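Supplementary Text 2. Reproducibility record for the structural model of the 73-residue chain.

All settings were left at their defaults, and a single model was retained for analysis rather than an ensemble. We include the record here because the model underlies the residue-level annotations in Supplementary Table 4.
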Amino acid sequence: MSALAITLQAFFSDRLLRERHASPCTISAYRDTWRLLLRFAATRTSKSPSALDFADFDVSLVCAFLDHLLRLT
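Retained model, structure tokens:
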């Protein structure tokens, strides 16, 4: 399991649920956004989402993702 996967799992289970007591709607919104980002990054890097790691994310990828989201609306 990549460091990214471990960090995301901890973010959802520890940070959002236990520490922040986030609502189910908030958790769903974060989850859906991460799914979109991971799919986008997987397409751009030609890797499966489960193979992505922190090194795969840079400023240009995140900016391209945000541009992509703007075009969807």
